[in-house]
Structures are given as C-alpha cells and as structure tokens.
Specification:
single chain, 231 residues, 3-stranded mixed β-sheet, 8 helices, 6% strand, elongated
C-alpha cells in the first residue's frame, strides 16, 4: 500500500526541479522570486479547480454526453457497493452514444468523480466485464488519481514554457546567455518529466486494476474486457 508514498515522492521531486527553474529565471530577469512562486501556485490552483467543468462542457458539446444516464440495475447496485466500501459518493455517470468501447474518469476528488461510458462498452462486454471496467475507473477515483495526475502534468507544461521564454529570440536581457542555458536545462527536464509522468501513470493504472480485481473477485473478467477493448 505504498501508492501514496510513491506519488508524493514523485510529485515532490518534479516540483522541486520546477521551482528551482522558476526561481532561477525570476532572479535573472530581475523579478522577485516570490513572483515566480506565486504565479506557479495560482496557475496550479486555477487549472485544478476549473478543468472538470470545462471537461463537462466539452463532453456535452463535442460528444453529446448525457450525465443523467441511468445505468443498468446490475451495474448501479455494483457501483453503490464499491462506493460504500470505499467511503465515497456515487459518481456522476456520463453516457456517450458511440459504438467504440471506452471508459474514463475525471474530477477533483473521489467524491465528485465523473465516470463516462460509451455504448460500445455495454454492447461488446458481458455484465461481469462491464463491472470490472467500471471498478477500474472507480479505482482511479478512490486513489485520487485525478488530483495527483493533474498536479503532475503541470510540471512539463511549466518547464516547456520556461524553455520557450528563455530561448526566445526577442529576449534582449543582459543575462541572455544564462537564460539560454537555463532554457536548455528546462527542455531536458521537460523530456525527463514526461517519462516520469508516464511511469507514475502506469503505476496508478496497476493500482486501479488491483481495486477492480479485489472488488469483483474476477481477474479474468478484467483481462478479457481489456483484450476486447484493445482489439
């Protein structure tokens, strides 16, 4: 049960690197260090707060998602049982009328999670396989994956922004050579951070698989569902 520790150490390392780059840039351009730190914190908070609502809108506008969808009774009962055992609220269930099998989760925390399912999930999979897939998505909510991955994915975004600013041809600062060097360092860290995030994401996928298997007691259902979806 060391997922929380793994996530905190990974995020801590990423944000230490990011903060160091931001502080170096603010020093070289003559701005107060607190300015860079304040901007980073503000962007992080705003992005986290508004992103689920923008995702809701995009689901409705572009994919015609319905968020008052009544899932089959067998699935509703299963979700209620998993939520009760993990002390979480019943998630908002979205439905997209698309034959391609897909399922995903987003939100702030486990108590305002959205789980979106497509028509293809119900057409292609058996009831046990549907429960296994939904349990996997509930696993993401239970483990606060939306929070951790949102925070983690901001690091490469900031690092690439630092790279663009520092290597801009319009940069006439007297410390231009230093900024160029920091820009290249930021780009290297940007590439590295992307691989770190891929590793963290894969680790959290394994833990979501684990919760699915624990709740359904049927690992074969999850395996066969993933094969069908992938195929």
């Amino acid at each position: 049960r060391n997922l929380l520790g793994i996530s905190l150490v990974t995020l801590g390392g990423l944000y230490v690197l990011l903060s160091a780059i931001i502080i170096l840039v603010t020093i070289l351009i003559g701005a107060p260090v607190i300015t860079g730190i304040g901007i980073s914190i503000a962007v992080l908070i705003i992005q986290f707060l508004v992103s689920p609502f923008f995702t809701d809108l995009s689901m409705k506008w572009f994919y015609k998602a319905k968020f008052k969808y009544e899932v089959p009774e067998y699935l509703k009962k299963f979700i209620e049982e998993v939520c009760a055992s993990n002390n979480m609220k019943y998630p908002r269930i979205g439905y997209i009328d698309d034959g391609a099998p897909n399922a995903f989760t987003y939100g702030h925390t486990k108590n305002d999670a959205r789980i979106v399912l497509t028509r293809g999930i119900f057409e292609l999979l058996t009831e046990e396989e549907v429960k296994a897939v939904v349990a996997h998505e509930l696993g993401h909510a239970v483990h606060y994956d939306m929070l951790f991955m949102t925070v983690a994915q901001l690091v490469p975004l900031f690092l690439y922004g630092v790279y663009e600013i520092c290597t801009s041809n319009d940069n006439d600062n007297n410390n231009n050579s230093y900024l160029q060097s920091i820009g290249m360092l930021a780009y290297i860290l940007y590439v590295i951070s992307n691989y770190v995030i891929l590793w963290l994401s894969r680790t959290r996928e394994y833990y979501a698989d684990e919760l699915s298997i624990e709740t359904t007691k049927n690992p074969n259902a999850l395996a066969s569902a993933l094969v069908k979806i992938g195929y």
